[in-house]
Every structure is written in structure tokens, then in C-alpha cells.
Automatic annotation (TrEMBL), chain A:
It comes from the Bacteria. One of its GO terms (cellular component) is ATP-binding cassette (ABC) transporter complex, substrate-binding subunit-containing. Residues 4-236 form the ABC transporter domain. One of its GO terms (molecular function) is ATP binding. It comes from Haloactinopolyspora alba. The keyword ATP-binding applies. Gene3D superfamilies: 2.40.50.100, Nucleic acid-binding proteins, P-loop containing nucleotide triphosphate hydrolases. GO terms for biological process: carbohydrate transport. InterPro entries: AAA+_ATPase, ABC_transporter-like_ATP-bd, ABC_transporter-like_CS, ABC_transpr_MalK-like, ABC_transpr_MalK/UgpC-like, Mo/tungstate-bd_C_term_dom, NA-bd_OB-fold, OB_MalK-like. Keywords: ATP-binding, Nucleotide-binding, Transport. This is Carbohydrate ABC transporter ATP-binding protein (CUT1 family).
UniProtKB/TrEMBL annotation, chain B:
CDD domains: TM_PBP2. This is N-acetylglucosamine transport system permease protein. The lineage of its organism: Bacteria, Bacillati, Actinomycetota, Actinomycetes, Jiangellales. SUPFAM superfamilies: MetI-like. It is a multi-pass membrane protein.
Length: 373, 310
């Protein structure tokens, strides 16, 4: 058990100007499940590999517990890693794969056998112990890779997109298995994924990265409710948040015909930075249909309707006389709104939506940072 | 479909007959001819070819020089592949996974891309040149012998020898030269095999606390074993030959007292010095039988379950 601390850790690949990971400051508590999430190329895997010792730390330092591991070889760090492609030894049986690290460490044979058997029981692998990896399904291989990490009883688990090679259904069930296993073992875990749903469902806390920079670390709900900048707002949540640039006129954020009241604190902050526009975001769930006459509505022509049973989402384009302006100012191609699943509008229909008061997110146009209401 | 199938066999045969015919004519028929010639007494220069049954084989049995050649061939067969493959594996693993770099956890030792080219140099030299070069290396000091002159220059003059004048050294010098000439090829071959092992397997081994030696023994070697096996068979066949190097370095008689003789040179001598093509063919048949036996044996002994790289 241990904490993990990134202290201004940077990784600059040779011949590159921009750091792949730029002074990452992050503290992971003992026993915590922390998820690193971000689009591809954001530096999340590099961060994990720096902790593993597979990438050099060019600046700053990394500590596990009180130990400075910045330049320590991987084997001395007391970590175990689950790789994206599992990296099982193809020529060894499942039990040899799981016991390899212990064997190298000179653990007595009896103990190796016992620990491998315990892990196999935990992961439901008992009947496969003598098989080679090629005779296993993807899900079983994934569990062997988990087992290999568990057997070590390390201070920290590192997982690099361990679910990305599984089919969708298996991914969902394995997701919960890994999360519950981690809670049971109580071992500090750093988990890398590009899938924000995995991040939200598994992590105690989630760290969002972009271009090597840490954007925000918070609990899943914290990220969802109070994204600290436009990127996090757009990245977290599915379907994605609707984000557009609005003009600030007389205490209202207006864009064409639509207008949303802006809290005085936000207006003041926008004025202070010398701007007359504000980036406004609202989640699909925050939209509700209103009658076409009401003030400040956002008229939308329905393109596509996704009916998921429990939910229904309308994908549409802004309508009305100012639709072109509205489309130009939007961050995404479409406006997405959640509607009552049993009462969906027809395709091509024009629906007037408004943002439920209190569900708006305001961001600075200049810095992208959140403006607190 | 049926129209196609109707003409299928003539169609296939038109493509098959020329290559199979050429193969039979130029590859298989010489074997058959050689076996027949080995049962005759023939100078190779006249049409006077006399069938003598197995007399040539009986003569082989009583030929002491041939025994020396056979013994040398067996030494080459055992020692050269072992030396070459072990060195090849060692160098290849140092070039590909031996280093611990700054930019990547798993990489070759520093300058490995240069070494890869350098190791391949001997492979592009014809064996004739290799043999001439090493004849100079082992020549006496006053004939420009490189080794002896180096030994003298560094104060080890007492170790100088007439290397090629000492019967007991000859075959080991041939072993050394052949190993030198072949190791580069196996470095390249094994490098390619090691490159195809997924990097994350090495990383997993690194995290599991595996040292370089353990990684080599427990991970690299089992995963390139198929290639080692192929390399071993190929090297054994090449070691059975050794003609060019022995002939050029030691001469047609296999050096002092014929101590460096090999079967290939014995064939050449029988055919072109003694004009006894029948006897030469008989030695050739012996070599063929030996080579086939060795290949089959190696294939059997080294066969293992194939490993699939994920």
C-alpha cells in the first residue's frame, strides 16, 4: 500500500519541442483508484509508463510512498502492470505466466503455487492454469494478465487500457469486476483509458489530460458537475455537452434568437477580462422542450433521434431566422437534447428547447476556464 | 465455373511441367548419376566407364585420409554451429534488447545500428577472400603473418607459432574462420526474429524483475527457438561443406599431413588430382547420406511446440 506522487514530472521525447507530459502534479492516495483519461496522444500512457519506469522522467520526480523512484529501475519499484495487449509470455502456461515474477524473486515453490492458486480462484481461472495463452479467449487472457499483477501483491497496480481489446459486452462486465477487485484488494491503482465512460464508472477520482497537461482531477461527479474548463466540459459526459459562444447583452447570453440569463457574478467576470462574449455549455439533459412562443428558446430542427429505451436523444440543427449564426458559433456539428423516451418528436420537426435554470456552465472565451456563477 | 473446371488440369499441368521438368533434369538426375558413377571405375576423362559394384565404398572404408576428413567434418558439424549460433544469439540479443536506454526501456546497446552493419560485413565477402585473408593472418611472421606480428608487437612473442604448420591446430583454425564468416548472417537472422517479439513482452519481463540473462533464457530464447532451429540446420549443412576455405587456406591436400582435410576437398582431390571420378562420387554419396541424416536428426530433436506471438 502506498501513495503515488507526481511532482512536476515531465517527459520530453528526444527531438520534440513539446513535452509529452508537461510538469504533471498529481497525488494519488493510498488505496485509491485513479483513472487517467484523455484523447489519444494526451500523454496518459506516457504518464503511466513513467511511473512504471518504462519511460525516463526528464524533469521533476515521482514518489511511491516516501520512496523517490524517479530513476529507479522498474523491478525495484514494487509495481505490477496490466498491458493493453496483456503481454503474456506466449510460451508459458497460465500458471507459469502468473508465477514468473515470484520465481525470479526466488519465492519458495509452495508459496508460488499457493499464491497462483489464490489468484486463479479469485479470477475464475482455475481450470485454465495449464493452458498456453493462445488457447484462451480474449477475456481469459485479460484475467491472466490481471492475475499476473495480483500474484505479485505490489504496492501499486498500473493498468494501460486493459479493456480496449474486449468486445463491448465483456468490457462492461469486466469493468465492474476490476473495480470491485480493486476495492477488495485495496491496492493503489492507476488506470489509463481513453473511454470517459470507463473513467466515470471505475475511478474514485479521474484525472483528465490533454496535450500533456493535466486539466482537472476530481471525483467523477465533480468533473461532471463542475468542469474546470471547456475541454473537460466537452470531454466528460455522453452524449457530449452542447457548447457555443454567446454574446453578453444586458445580463443575458444571447445567440441569435435564443437567450439565457447570466448570473451577475459571471457578467462581472466577463466584463473584467474585457470581453463581451462568453462560452456557454449545457448538457443534453439540461434542455427541456417549451412552447414555441416562449422567450429565449432555442428552436431546433430534428435530424436524428436515438431511442435507447430508458433515454431518447434528439440530434438537431439550430432553426429559425438566425440559425446560420448559431451554427457558426457552436463547437459541435449538432445540438443534442435529451427528451422523454415515450414522447419523442418526429424527424424533421421543429422543437423549441430551453436550458433548465441553474444547469448552465460558463467559460471564459479567452482562457477556456470555468467562470463560477 | 464448370467451363473453368473442365480445363483445370491441363491448365495446371502447363504451369507445373516446365519447373518440375527443369528441377528433375538439373537437380535430381545428377544425384542419380552420381550414385551410378560411384559404382563404377571412371577417370572422368574417357568414355571408359567400368561397373565395379561397391568396390569404391570398400576402398573408402580402408582410406585413413578419408577418416581424417570425416573426423574433421564431424568437428565442424558440431563445433561451428554451436559457436556460431551461441555468438549469433548473444550479439543479436545485445543489439536488440540488451541495452537499457534513456528514451526506451528496451533497446539495443549503444551504437547497435552500426554494429548490425559491421557484423554483416563478413557475409558479403566471398569465402575465397575470407580464406586468403586468414591465410595471411596465420602466416609465419616473416611472411607477413598478422597474428604473429601482433603478438610480437604486444610483447607476447613467446606465443607465436607456425599456425598453419602444426597439424593439430589446422581444423580449429578452420572452425574459427568459418565461425567468423558465418556469425554475421545469424546475427541478422536472429535480430529479425527478436524484432518480431512484441516489445511489451520484454517490458512485462522487466517489470517482473527479470535480469538480462533471465530475460534471454526464459523469454527471448524460447520465442526465437523456431529460428534457431532453422539456423542450426542451415549452419550444419554449411559446416558439412567448408570446401572453399580449406582448399584455399590449406591447399588441395588439406594442409600439413592432410590434418585439415574435409570431405569436400577429398572429393575434389579424388576427381581432379587423382582422376578417379568413381571414388569422388562415392565420397559425394557418403556426404549426401550424412547431410540428410543430420537434417532429419536435427528436425526431430529440435522439434517443439510452436509458439504464437500474440
Amino acid at each position: 500500500m502506498a501513495t503515488v506522487t507526481y511532482d512536476k514530472a515531465s517527459r520530453i521525447y528526444p527531438g520534440q519541442d513539446n513535452p509529452a507530459v508537461d510538469s504533471l502534479d498529481l497525488t494519488i492516495e493510498d488505496g485509491e483508484f485513479l483513472v487517467l483519461v484523455g484523447p489519444s496522444g494526451c500523454g496518459k500512457s506516457t504518464s503511466l509508463r513513467m511511473l512504471a519506469g518504462l519511460e525516463e522522467v526528464d524533469q521533476g520526480s515521482i514518489r511511491i510512498g516516501e520512496r523517490d523512484v524517479t530513476h529507479m529501475p522498474p523491478k525495484d519499484r514494487d509495481i505490477a502492470m496490466v498491458f493493453q495487449n496483456y503481454a503474456l509470455y506466449p510460451h508459458m502456461s497460465v500458471s507459469d505466466n502468473m508465477g514468473f515474477a515470484l520465481k525470479i524473486a526466488g519465492t519458495p515453490k509452495d508459496e508460488i503455487r499457493r499464491r497462483v492458486a489464490d489468484a486463479a480462484k479469485l479470477l475464475d481461472l482455475e481450470e485454465y492454469l495449464d493452458r498456453k495463452p493462445k488457447a484462451l479467449s480474449g477475456g481469459q487472457r485479460q484475467r491472466v494478465a490481471m492475475g499476473r499483477a495480483i500474484v505479485r501483491e505490489p504496492q501499486v497496480f498500473l493498468m494501460d487500457e486493459p479493456l480496449s481489446n474486449l468486445d463491448a459486452k465483456l468490457r462492461v462486465s469486466t469493468r465492474t469486476q476490476i473495480a470491485s477487485l480493486q476495492r477488495r484488494l485495496g491496492i493503489t491503482t492507476v488506470y489509463v483509458t481513453h473511454d470517459q465512460i470507463e473513467a466515470m464508472t471505475m475511478g474514485d477520482r479521474v484525472a483528465v489530460l490533454k496535450d500533456g497537461l493535466l486539466q482537472q482531477v476530481d471525483t467523477p461527479l465533480g468533473l461532471f458537475d463542475k468542469p474546470q474548463n471547456v475541454f473537460v466540459a466537452g470531454f466528460i459526459g455522453s452524449p457530449a455537452m452542447n457548447i457555443a459562444t454567446f454574446d453578453l447583452v444586458d445580463g443575458n447570453a444571447t445567440l441569435g434568437e435564443s437567450s439565457v440569463p447570466v448570473p451577475p457574478a459571471v457578467s462581472a467576470a466577463v466584463k473584467e477580462e474585457g470581453s463581451d462574449t462568453v462560452t456557454l455549455g449545457f448538457r443534453p439533459e439540461a434542455l427541456e422542450p417549451v412552447s414555441s412562443e416562449s422567450e429565449g428558446g432555442i428552436p431546433i430542427v430534428v435530424d436524428v433521434i436515438e431511442e435507447l429505451g430508458a433515454d431518447a436523444f434528439v440530434y438537431g440543427q439550430p432553426a429559425g431566422p438566425t440559425s446560420e449564426l448559431q451554427s457558426d458559433r457552436m463547437r459541435s456539428e449538432t445540438v443534442i437534447a435529451r427528451v422523454e423516451p415515450r414522447n419523442v418528436p418526429a424527424k424533421g420537426a421543429k422543437v423549441n428547447f430551453r436550458v433548465r435554470p441553474g444547469n448552465e456552465h460558463f467559460f471564459s472565451v479567452k482562457t477556456g476556464a470555468r467562470i463560477e456563477a | 465455373m464448370s467451363a473453368l473446371r473442365h480445363g483445370k488440369y491441363p491448365f495446371i499441368l502447363t504451369f507445373l511441367i516446365p519447373p518440375v521438368g527443369i528441377y528433375a533434369l538439373y537437380m535430381l538426375s545428377p544425384y542419380v548419376q552420381a550414385i551410378y558413377i560411384s559404382l563404377t571405375e571412371w577417370s572422368g576423362l574417357s568414355a571408359n566407364q567400368k561397373f565395379i559394384g561397391f568396390d569404391n565404398y570398400v576402398e573408402m572404408w580402408n582410406d585413413d585420409q578419408l577418416r581424417t576428413a570425416l573426423r574433421n567434418n564431424l568437428i565442424l558439424l558440431v563445433v561451428v554451429p554451436v559457436l556460431t549460433l551461441v555468438l549469433g544469439l548473444f550479439f543479436a540479443s545485445m543489439l536488440n534488447v540488451g541495452g537499457r536506454g534513456r528514451s526506451q526501456a528496451i533497446t539495443g546497446v549503444r551504437g547497435s545500428s552500426i554494429y548490425k552493419v559491421v557484423y554483416f560485413f563478413p557475409q558479403v565477402l566471398p569465402h575465397a577472400i575470407v580464406a586468403i585473408m586468414f591465410a595471411y593472418v596465420f602466416a609465419p611472421s616473416n611472411a607477413g603473418g598478422i597474428l604473429n606480428n601482433i603478438l610480437e608487437a604486444i610483447g607476447l612473442g613467446s606465443l607465436t607459432q607456425l599456425w598453419l604448420g602444426e597439424p593439430k591446430y589446422l581444423i580449429w583454425i578452420v572452425v574459427l574462420v568459418m565461425t567468423w564468416a558465418f556469425v554475421g548472417f545469424y546475427v541478422v537472422l536472429f535480430s529479425a526474429a527478436m524484432q518480431s517479439i512484441p516489445r511489451d513482452i520484454y517490458e512485462a519481463a522487466l517489470l517482473d524483475g527479470s535480469s538480462r540473462l533471465t530475460t534471454f533464457r526464459k523469454v527471448t530464447l524460447p520465442l526465437v527457438w523456431d529460428t534457431v532451429q532453422v539456423g542450426w540446420v542451415y549452419m550444419a549443412i554449411q559446416a558439412m561443406d567448408g570446401f572453399a576455405i580449406v582448399h584455399i587456406m590449406l591447399g588441395v591436400n588439406g594442409g600439413v599431413q592432410g590434418a585439415g582435410d574435409v570431405l569436400g576437398v577429398a572429393i575434389y582431390r579424388a576427381a581432379f588430382a587423382d582422376y578417379d571420378f568413381g571414388y569422388a562420387a562415392a565420397i559425394g554419396v557418403l556426404m549426401l547420406a550424412l547431410t540428410m541424416t543430420i537434417v532429419v536428426l536435427f528436425m526431430r530433436v529440435l522439434r517443439r511446440e510452436r509458439v504464437e506471438l500474440a
